[in-house]
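Here's a chain:
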Amino acid sequence: MGFSGYLAGVISGAEAASQKRETTIEHEGAKQHTREEKNVSNEISKLESELNEMTAKGKNLDALARYYADDCTFEEGDGSKRTSRKAQHDHLSRFFASLKRFNDATLHGQATGDDVSMSEWTFDMTGGDGRPIVWNEVLVRRWKGNQVIAERFYTAQSPR
């Protein structure tokens, strides 16, 4: 290999190193962006876990006061909606008062993403008439900061 071949190899290597450096810089920017996203996602994951822990203990109304925005919207699987935390509080209060017993709440799993979280539950209750009620439900929550701004329920009632 002559000098010109050697020089072409050096230039080629320098171009490759330059491209690699640019890629590394772009990659470092992506790492920073990913770290920021992870921090937000980690915060939502932490809040989701706390909220679900309260739900599992039957502290739904306390969780509502702590984690939900005043103007949060709530949507049932049938499309009916409530448009404030107070409306949801009243709805839940009436519902719990109609039960003979709330037996158990089982969290099967939870996931978080970009300002969204999901949790899968089975709720075991006894209706006011003594009949068992079993709900399998997925709750999808939209977050803004540290508050839920929208929640949607996907529910299937299981016969017992």
Summary: The chain has one domain: 3-158.
